[in-house]
Design a protein that fits this description.
There is one protein chain. With about 300 residues, this protein is mostly beta strands. The chain has a single domain, classed as Porin. The protein contains one helix and 17 strands. The protein has a 17-stranded antiparallel sheet that branches. β8 (about 140-150) and β9 form a beta hairpin. The longest helix is centred in the N-terminal third of the chain and has 9 residues, at about 50-60.
Length: about 300
Amino acid sequence: MVQGNPAIGDESAHAALTNGQLWLQKTTGWWQFYIQAGAYDIPALGAPFLQTDEYISDFFGPVPVAYLKLVPAKNTAILVGSLPTLMGAESIFTFQNMNIDRGLLWNQENTVNRGIQINQTMGKFTASLSWNDGFYSNRYSWLSGALTYSSGAHSVAFEGMGNMSRTKFQTTATPIQNNGNIYALVYTYTKGSWIVQPYGQYSTFEGGSTRGGALLLNRTFKHGFSLPGRVEYLSTTGTVDVLFGPGSNAWSFTATPTFQYKRFFVRGDLSLVHATDFTPGVFRKPNQTRAVLEAGFLF
């Protein structure tokens, strides 16, 4: 990765292991399990870059996702453990997403929480409800839910989560947003060579709020080529800095040309972030450009 306008203390170029992970799972029977273990890096737009060992030590450890799954009925599942969040359109790890860098809206969400989750399928509807520790706080006071309607090429999901209590506990993985609420409405169109996914997001927390929207696109071509893209805008209010200074706003654009041949893939991110109502602090200037190259094997 190379970047312009690196954060104070950051470098203009980096090399890292984004994913060196293994999965162990049991997917049949009334009891099942899933374990995901290894090394990972989670680059995000408009955020200082952390090395792989820093992410493991400061965030979710060497086993970021692991849970027991009970299936008492055909359309019912109960999950207990360290779970992926129900919130947002983007997932945590680079290989799970169209783009390498996570977006500005994603950076307002939690990614992994520990708790219990119930999934229920009812025809074209899928519902999930979870009691968990929100932003990895180890304080079990968050209620999360998602309701998805799917029909053919279309799906619409409403997602919401909030802290039923308050805590002073804060770490790198548990920011000020842990005392707050967040909601998202996600529409997905998938047909042929196209994926179109617009979504909106709103959050409140102690000292402020955010509003944002994003459009994710992916066009697949012949011979293993595809071109994902993302454009997004995020605005903040209040006295707490969760972006580029209190009350700052920003938009971003990302394009990720991708090639995959069987198990091998290579892709590159080209991105631009521009901030308005910018307050110099972590970053000296309101613009940041990045170019990222990622290559690897899926097996």
